[in-house]
Amino acid sequence: MKKEFREMLKERGRTEMPKVLLAAAECAPLSKTGGLADVVGTLPQDLAKLGIDARVITPYHKVIKDKYRDKVEHLFDFEVLLGWVKEYVGIERLEVNGITVYLVDNEKYFGDKIYRGGEPEGQQYMYFCRAVIEAVPLLGFDPDVIHCNDWHTSIIPMLAHTQYIGSMQDSIKYLLTIHNIAFQGKFGFDFVHGLLGIDPGYYTYEYLEHNGCANFLKAGCVFSDRINTVSPSYAGEIRTPYYAEGLDGILNARGAVLTGIINGIDKVAFNPHSDPSLPARYDRGHLKGKAKCKAELQAKMGLEQRPDVPLVAMVTRMTEQKGFDLVAYILDELMNTEDIQFMLLGTGDARFEDFMRGAESRFPGRLCAYLGYSEELSHLVYAGSDFFLMPSRFEPCGLSQMIAMRYGSLPIVRETGGLKDTVMPYNKYTGEGTGFSFANYNAHEMLDAIRKALECYKDEETMQGLIGNAMKEDFGFERSALDYARHYIWML
Ligand code: ADP
Ligand code: GLC
Question: What pLDDT, on the 0 to 100 scale, is given for residue 382?
Fold first, then answer.
């Protein structure tokens, strides 16, 4: 055990590292719609290296059942009350990458989509939170800390401290990680009261109520022992009205326990040197393989076979968060004035998908919009592209830009949240930098940054230097795991 931890524990009269249960709606590689899943799947592996037994509890989604049915072990089952209805809860166990994952099974709630949207999604996750809190004493694991993630699990601390007073659930410590403040879990109080039986006395501004709704993320901020978000910059930003989506009041009130811990990426899953999904492998000193990946990407996606043309890529959820309106605003201008190729892999808002379909037909052989979700293709896009565009309106951390750097695709980002904390803009005087950036949420500022990047592309030496810098960065989870370990111990 690290000396630092031994001393911290001693001050608290303990010798053993805390046991942690991470509760989350998704967990890679089992289920994934975005970065949350990557974090929940990777962090416990690095915590284990620090001697922390961290396990995960997550819904037994259909995607998991379809693939892992034979590997799952049924531990026990019981019933919970959701309103006046008794609901089945199966607790299954699966080992993934050396980590114990508990899966909450009920096909009524998790038989199709991970997120059903609207009130149906509220039902899914109110059921899940009730199931988790009831399952905890039965697991034979006894966590010291429950680590909640986003609104889908953020009502758990409130339930523990208001409905389980004096029980083990009440004495557990709670860390809430905010991965995305744009989603808060807002519902009518009657709906929430009907399913979770929350005392109307808590439906006030001090606790659950916010702008006339029951707000799960707010309740999480009120009842958790500590709160963190996924980058230092975003931790500052969400204390301001522009970024806080209405929660700046509570976050400032709890400012003393609010911190930012930057995410890492899974360096094994994302490694150009050993990635089995690539046609050729490469590393910092040997980039020939990268050129092969580019050729393969062009061939697969119907782009002209040209090694010389700069290829700008995006792998993204297509929402306003990701700056898609900026892209839509200047895409034609960019394609008409520069000799480039553009590759998008993403799904999201219909208006952006329609726009990209149109763009694909306007620029055949030069622009490809693959509107879908494909883990395998995403690796080829990171490896085969020269630049990775991520002009987010806000970005709590962002994993894609880190993955891109690891694959030697230089990020072009807006200076916000985790993008600002992870991408060092190119300095033409010193040659330092790992990418390109712009400050304001403005389409033409973004276009300027893209043009700067394209300028560098013309000079092979500059490009080689930048790619080397980007690939040298260490975005592993070790650093974050150390910080999370400190947070868990502080709470004991
Ligand atoms: P967010 O979680 O906000 O979507 P992140 O950058 O933190 O953003 O994480 C996104 C993760 O999801 C990355 O691992 C990225 O490669 C992956 N991803 C996003 N869209 C797709 C897609 N269409 N196909 C495959 N992977 C995707
Ligand atoms: C959210 C954020 C993203 C972050 C991810 C993992 O989806 O949008 O910025 O990287 O969570 O924390």
Answer: 98
**Which residues approach ligand 1 with their CB closer than 6 A?**
34-36, 38, 315-317, 345-347, 373-375, 378, 397-400, 403
What spacing in Å lies between the alpha carbon of 34 and ligand 2's midpoint?
7
Kindly give the distance from the C-alpha atom of residue 141 to the centroid of ligand 1, in angstroms, as a whole number. Answer: 32
* 8 Å CB contact between 334 and 340: yes
Asked whether residue 1 carries a pLDDT value surpassing 90, the answer given is no
CB 315 within 8 A of CB 321: no
Name the average pLDDT for the chain. Answer: 97
Q: Which of 317, 389, 395 for mutating ligand 1's site (highest number of atoms within 8 Å of CB)?
A: 317
Regarding the beta carbon of 43 and ligand 2, being less than 6 Å apart is answered no
pLDDT single digits (tens) 120-178: 999 999 999 999 999 999 999 999 999 999 999 999 999 999 999 999 999 999 999 99
Q: Whose CA is nearest to atom 4 of ligand 1?
A: 34
Only one residue has tokens 């911190």, namely 259
CA of 361 to the centre of ligand 1 (A): 25
Q: For 328-343, what is each residue's pLDDT tens digit?
A: 999 999 999 999 999 9
Give the per-residue SS3 of 252-304.
HHCHHHEEECCCCCCCCCCCCCCCCCCCCCCECCECHHHHHHHHHHHHHCCCC
pLDDT band at residue 404 under the 50/70/90 scheme: very high
Which domains, ranges and CATH numbers included, belong to the chain? 3-264+477-491 (3.40.50.2000), 288-472 (3.40.50.2000)
